[in-house]
Design brief:
- The complex is a heterodimer of chains A (210) and B (257).
- Chain A has 210 residues and is mainly alpha-helical.
- Helix content of chain A is 67%, strand content 2%.
- Chain A contains eight helices and two strands, in the order E-H-H-H-H-H-H-H-H-E.
- A two-stranded antiparallel sheet of chain A has the order 1-2.
- The radius of gyration of chain B is 21 Å and the shape is globular.
- Chain B has two domains: 56 residues, no CATH class; 172 residues, Alpha-Beta Complex (Sulfite Oxidase, Chain A, domain 2), CATH 3.90.420.10.
- Classes of the chains: A mainly alpha (210), B alpha+beta (257).
- At the A-B interface, helix 1, helix 2 and helix 7 of A face helix 2 and helix 3 of B.
Chain lengths: 210, 257
């Protein structure tokens, strides 16, 4: 891979998949809020109509069941790409608990360093791993809510239809929580946002130390 | 927005007149807020998603594709989980496009089950005759598209046994229903022939009560609640897509679970 060529921090394929995912996630979250409102999970929690995709539940469902293909296929492509090229391992591993604690401590003391975009700190790594797992979990729980009879053993394994609905809701909360932090940090450190558009700094070929 | 599955009686128009000023204020505020988030989406998609007919067409095409995927995922031999009779909710949950107080009970003396389409023997059925068919029982979960569910116990002849008895073309694509409450509905033949698809006449061991579809309604373990018409008056076997009440308003047609 990439023999004789310098790599970018975010190769073109990753950038394309990132922005497709961003669009698909927004579609899924906002249409999901349109579906949620008919039978709420948290009493008193409703999503304003200006935040919902679809004028009522039926169009929201149409959006959700169209967006799911984009989200799942793009997500699958990203995981296959990340595993085959080694990007996932390179970006997110190793991760040590002590580093996570240290990064949190530094952040609380306002010692936020981000001058080298090519190295993810431990909290960043942890957040990316959590959000990838949440995304996979959303696809699985979404499939179970869509087909609770065809996949009845999966639903039983997770504690029943309503339990899976709640899991799907929690997965959304995790992703929205990530999204808020992710977007806020990318605006605080705009080079990261620019890197996801232009490719970012050039990297040494894999296997050579810088 | 209020759920369209639970519409209430329209309010007294005088209330609207008394509050017109405040409503206009709210609308203006909502419009500005809506404009902001719509602007955000429009940046991503390059168009206004709420009014563009090509988006609407695209969504319906995707829904038609999803209907095909759902038909492929449907396993005609897979039975939905069943539950002990002690878990049956009594009475069942009422749900329709109108309130329970609006239910018009069916007068069984004038009731007939009409048959149409690809059926060899189209003579209408009386309730007495329907009651002579062997019955099946099932205690299954009812899942609404809104997200709620309850466990109900239903009995009656399987739709399969009825269709076989009247000589229906079991290779036709659709089975369509007409009802006394003007709630047309239709399902695919594979689901019609599933062993947990009943022409239900009894609930929890008793004759079906008026609000829940007396004398006969459809109950399927493999589809969402809105696919189960109550107070059935006619059954048609056809290859022409028949649509349905909610489907014509934008809900998905297959609605398999």
């Amino acid at each position: 891979m990439n023999k004789g060529r310098t790599r970018r921090l975010h190769p073109l394929a990753v950038r394309i998949m990132h922005w497709i995912n961003a669009f698909a996630m927004l579609v899924m979250i906002m249409s999901g809020w349109g579906i949620y409102d008919d039978y709420v999970i948290i009493h008193g929690l409703h999503f304003s109509s200006s935040l919902r995709l679809g004028s009522w539940a039926a169009p929201s469902l149409l959006w959700h069941f169209a967006g799911m293909w984009l989200l799942a296929l793009n997500g699958l492509a990203y995981l296959v790409y990340g595993l085959v090229t080694g990007r996932l391992r390179e970006r997110m591993l190793p991760i040590h608990a002590a580093d996570v604690v240290q990064t949190v401590r530094d952040t609380l003391h306002f010692k936020i360093k981000h001058d080298d975009l090519t190295v993810y700190n431990a909290v960043q790594k942890l957040l990316y791993i959590v959000v990838i797992l949440a995304g996979i979990s959303q696809v699985v729980t979404g499939l179970l809510i869509w087909k609770p009879v065809q996949f009845s053993s999966g639903v039983a394994l997770l504690g029943g239809f309503q339990a899976v609905r709640i899991d799907h809701f929690i997965g959304m909360c995790v992703i929205v929580g990530f999204l808020i932090v992710h977007v806020a940090l990318s605006l605080l450190v705009p080079q990261t946002l620019w890197a996801m558009l232009s490719g970012g700094p050039r990297l040494q070929p894999r296997g050579e130390s810088p | 927005m209020k759920s369209p599955f639970r519409p209430a009686k329209p309010p007294d128009p005088a209330i609207l007149d008394n509050h017109r000023g405040r409503i206009q204020l709210l609308e203006r505020r909502g419009f500005m807020r809506g404009g902001l988030s719509l602007g955000a989406i429009a940046l991503l998609t390059g168009c206004d998603v709420t009014s563009d007919p090509s988006i609407d067409k695209g969504l319906r095409l995707m829904s038609a594709w999803n209907d095909r995927v759902q038909a492929a995922l449907f396993d005609p031999n897979h039975l939905a989980p069943t539950y002990p009779a002690s878990m049956i909710l009594k009475p069942p949950k009422f749900n329709a496009y109108y309130d329970i107080t609006q239910v018009k009970p069916v007068d069984v003396s004038g009731w007939k089950l009409e048959l149409a389409g690809s059926i060899a023997d189209k003579r209408p059925w009386t309730l007495e005759r329907l009651m002579t068919l062997p019955t099946s029982e099932m205690v299954i979960k009812h899942i609404c598209v809104e997200g709620w569910d309850y466990i109900g116990g239903w009995s009656g002849p399987t739709l399969r046994s009825f269709l076989e008895r009247v000589g229906a073309d079991l290779h036709a694509r659709y089975v369509a229903f007409k009802t006394a409450d003007d709630y047309p509905s239709s399902i695919d033949m594979a689901t019609a022939l599933h062993p947990q698809t009943l022409l239900a006449t009894r609930y929890a061991g008793e004759t079906l009560a008026d609000p829940f579809g007396f004398p006969v309604r459809l109950r399927m373990s493999t589809k969402l609640g809105y696919k189960n018409p109550k107070w059935i008056t006619a059954i048609e076997v056809t290859n022409q897509y028949p649509g349905g009440y909610w489907e014509n308003l934008g809900e998905g047609w297959f609605a398999g679970i």
